[in-house]
């Protein structure tokens, strides 16, 4: 660990990230990219030689949490992942500077000539797609994209048709696997931010909404629900922090458990927050539904149900 990392604390990044993210809410992707790049967010985990900060994932997590908490609609996580993964090329320079926008299609492959579950594919320059033994970074102009709004009509995922792709660069199988593990870490942080925002909003609403002369939070069932929500949020935070630390053999821990737990806990928290808001919780004006849709899109992109099955098999095998 460098002296720079020794003198910094990950939590210090949350406030700076929140200020930058708040400044781009509602802006179109190119404008958002310029502002976020100027704040240095894309290069937090990228090497200093490429204009990044050269910090570990533990410094990227609070950045992603701040983005989740403010419901940022921009592929910040994937921009950070790609800048880190292509650290040995000029691609990282363009991503860190915000000159290019990169996204990832989490399902499908170049060989299948189709890929799916790519967010913001209509506004990007590069799309990373799995191939036979790794992943290829494709120029977005060389493929066709079609919005799939089944989960989210406002910020849909995209299906990609790959006929004559122009490959900008490639990742080896090892590098592709490392990127996916890093994605579990940073997306767990983003999801935790979504859940944290919903928890805070529910706590504030129930403390100020008065019925029959008493705030909703005075009701025992409401207090128990809020306590359960808080417990699950703290469990997600603790599990993610554990995943960031090496095990007793000084080896990195896989982040799949933290990622799966973050999804399940955030869905519970956000749905309960919607319920606690009563009828207002189901209105378009209340932004909680944005958080739920974001979690569901991530869950679908990573085929989380299949991952949970694999974790169950591993748990039984280790017993």
TrEMBL record:
Belongs to the acyl-CoA dehydrogenase family. Its cofactor is FAD. Keywords: FAD, Flavoprotein, Oxidoreductase. Gene3D superfamilies: Acyl-CoA dehydrogenase/oxidase, N-terminal domain, Butyryl-CoA Dehydrogenase, subunit A, domain 3. This is Acyl-CoA dehydrogenase/oxidase C-terminal domain-containing protein. Residues 193-296 form the Acyl-CoA dehydrogenase/oxidase C-terminal domain. It holds the Pfam family Acyl-CoA_dh_1. It comes from the Bacteria. GO terms for molecular function: acyl-CoA dehydrogenase activity; flavin adenine dinucleotide binding. InterPro entries: AcylCo_DH-like_C, AcylCo_DH/oxidase_C, AcylCoA_DH/ox_N_sf, AcylCoA_DH/oxidase_NM_dom_sf.
